[in-house]
Amino acid sequence: MAHVKDLLSVVQKYWELYIGIDDLLAPVIIELNSEYYTSSDSETDTQLKGRQQTQAFAAVEAVMRHLISRNLKKPSSGIGGFLVSKFFVKKNRILEAAAAHLCNINPDHQVLEVGFGPGLGLKEVFNKVSKGSGTVHGIDISQKSFSLANKNLKQEIGTGKIKLHLASVTDIPYDSCTFDSIFHCNCYYFWPNMDDAVTELHRVIKPDKSMVATLSLPRMKMVQKHGFMQYGNIDPERYMTSLEKNGFYDVVMKTIPFEDKEIDAIIAKARK
Ligand SMILES: C[S@@+](CC[C@H](N)C(=O)[O-])C[C@H]1O[C@@H](n2cnc3c(N)ncnc32)[C@H](O)[C@@H]1O
User: Fold this and answer.
1) Any idea which of 55-69, 181-195, 221-235 has the lowest mean pLDDT?
2) How confident is the model over 207-218, as pLDDT tens digits?
């Protein structure tokens, strides 16, 4: 009886994983097409085995690239979302801290983060406004990020100083001219329409206030080179051109030392 129970729990576990990865099997099916199974006349058994092994590895790689690319854009509740969220916490804390630092936040500021992921940047800003009348606001389109940040920031949210929304950068649930600072880390790559997003950000920021984006361009180039940016565009020029076109001025990109690393930052001010 115990064996049946064990077996059922294993089946359930894999079923949940399967649900989490839903359409991820598509690349495998494409890779393992009918040629995979049939050998040509000239192919020996050993050659067929070798070819099948290579094709199977390629299929697994394609699944991994698809899984990671999709979850970098919008973390899901499946295994991919779990893995990339762990990665964000480990690798991106410094980018979030640098953005909060570059925003020159004072304790009475109203601050917005777009694409907060696990919520590390929101925590940094919370510490900066905790002694004043300032508040911290976040928007993210991923239910996974929203739930994770709510969990990680439970105490801070309880103070009423942090407010999170499940919302897109193209439709920000705030009045015009609300924020003294806006920041985002590793995020502009995924915005569905750059001009719409930048216009909306320009609407909610106060006149002459700054918006900061942080990233590690060398690292993002590696991510792109390895095929993990299938649903994003890291080109900083595309973002900067849109800023200039849609009401921002003094648009600069600079590489700055922060803690023990170098990070890239794109900073712009809002002309109103
Ligand atoms: C690569 S993650 C970065 C998370 C975090 N800022 C970091 O650096 O660790 C991108 C985040 O932006 C969010 N995002 C993507 N497109 C968005 C959009 N259109 N509006 C708001 N958030 C978005 C994703 O859901 C995800 O949580």
Assistant:
1) 55-69
2) 999 999 999 999
Q: What is the pTM of this model?
A: 0.86
Q: Which residues line ligand 1 (CB under 6 A)?
A: 72-75, 88, 92, 95, 114-117, 139-142, 145, 168-169, 185-187, 190-191
Residue found by looking up tokens 């990865």 in the block: 21
- Domain range summary for the chain, segments of one domain joined by +: 2-73, 93-270
Tell me how far the alpha carbon of residue 184 lies from the centroid of ligand 1, in angstroms.
8
* Residue among 69, 190, 224, 261 to mutate when testing ligand 1 (max atoms within 8 A of CB): 190
Q: What is the 3-state secondary structure (H, E, C) of 3-63?
A: HHHHHHHHHHHHHHHHHHHHHHHHHHHHHCCHHHHCCCCCCCHHHHHHHHHHHHHHHHHHH
93-270 topology per CATH? Rossmann fold (3.40.50)
Could you report the per-residue pLDDT of 29-75, keeping only the tens digit for each? Answer: 555 566 666 667 787 888 877 877 777 777 778 878 888 888 899 99
